[in-house]
Amino acid sequence: MTLTVTYDSNGGQNWRGTDDIDVIDCGSGFDLVFAGGGDDIVTANRGSDVIDGGDGSDTLRGGRGQDFLIGGNGDDFLCGDFGTDTLMGGNGADMFVFRPETATPLANLAYADIVLDFNAAQGDKIGLTAGIAIAEIALQVIDTDANGQADATLVKFSANNGDRILAVVLGTVNAAGQTTLSNADFITLPNNIF
């Protein structure tokens, strides 16, 4: 059974899904979504939303606000899209998806998307849509909390209008101060993924 909900309102909503497959299309307000079990599909749209996919292999898309996407248990597909988003895959082999048109100018680091829990050992991947080749990716370690130690990897690529940031990936720096990310952590996605 599939529950499909589409809601378009300037006011925020709280949604609680079922243990079946839920398809939830949020409105333009602040929405709080607990999708529950099942392989859910949730689109946040224009508000600054919090989406928890719960159990199951979920597809979560942020839209245009400053969203917090939580995959939960399962092999989840998370795309922050436009806005300053925070992505947490949870347990399972998760895909963190980034598009060239939603990248942040290098000078605006504070507005970049953040990946909280990338885990290559669990099978996590960073997915690149059309317009970004893996060979164009550059990795740079950074210190996000100003304590003098690098603690994250800045993922960027060169565009016609200068270097742009795809994401800041926390917890991907080893004791020697080097990034633990490599080309093997990236995958090119089909052109029609969205």
From TrEMBL:
<keyword id="KW-0964">Secreted</keyword>
<dbReference type="Pfam" id="PF00353">
    <property type="entry name" value="HemolysinCabind"/>
</dbReference>
<dbReference type="GO" id="GO:0005509">
    <property type="term" value="F:calcium ion binding"/>
</dbReference>
<dbReference type="InterPro" id="IPR050557">
    <property type="entry name" value="RTX_toxin/Mannuronan_C5-epim"/>
</dbReference>
<dbReference type="InterPro" id="IPR001343">
    <property type="entry name" value="Hemolysn_Ca-bd"/>
</dbReference>
<dbReference type="GO" id="GO:0005576">
    <property type="term" value="C:extracellular region"/>
</dbReference>
<protein>
    <recommendedName>
        <fullName>Calcium-binding protein</fullName>
    </recommendedName>
</protein>
<dbReference type="InterPro" id="IPR011049">
    <property type="entry name" value="Serralysin-like_metalloprot_C"/>
</dbReference>
<dbReference type="InterPro" id="IPR018511">
    <property type="entry name" value="Hemolysin-typ_Ca-bd_CS"/>
</dbReference>
